[in-house]
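# nightly structure sweep
# worker-07 picked up a monomer target from the shared queue
# config: single-sequence mode, recycle default, output format = C-alpha cells
# input follows
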Amino acid sequence: MNIEDMQNVWEKMGKDLEHQKKLTNTLILKMTQERYTHKFTKLATYETLGACICFITAIIILLNFSKLDTWYLILCGVLLIAYFITLPSFVLKSLYAIKAIKIDVDSYAITLKKYVKAKNNLLLVQQLGIYLNFVALLLVIPVFSKLFKNKDIFTTTNVIWYWLLPVLIIVMILISKWGYNCYKKITSSAETLLKELEDVTD
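# output follows
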C-alpha cells in the first residue's frame, strides 16, 4: 500500500468517525429531549387537571352570582372568579413554555439561556400563586358560605371559623411549601440535564 492509498484510508476512516460521532450526538440529543420533556409531563398533567377544576369552579360561581346580594360579597365573587381563571392560565402558560423548549434547535448557550428565563418565569408564577392562594382562601369562605348555605359570615357569627381558618392556613402553608419545593427540584434536575449537553451541542 503506497502513501496515497494510506491517505485515502485515513480520510475514509476520519469521515466514518465523524459520521458516527454525529449519529451518536443526534441520538444523545433525542434521548435527552425525551428525558427533559418527561420531567414536566406529570406536572403538566396535574396542573391541567387543577386548571379544569378552577375553571369549573369559576363557572359555578358565575351561574350562582345573583345569590351574592351585597357589595362586599359581589366584590369577593368577582375577585374569586378572576383568581380561578387568571392564575391557572398563567401557570399553564409558563409550564408549557418550559416544557416546549427544543434542545436541538439552537446552540447550547442559547438553549440554556431560554431555559433559565422560562424556569425563572415558572418559579415566579408559583411564588405569586402561593400568596394569591391565601387571599383566595379568605375569599372562598364568604362566597361559598353564601352560595351553598345562604349565610353571610360577615353578619352572622359562626364560631367554627375561629378554629377552622387557622387550620386551613397551616395546611395551605405546608402544601404550598411542598409544591414549590417540587417545582424547584424538577427545574434544577432539568437544568442539570441540559448542562450535561455542553460537549454535545457545541
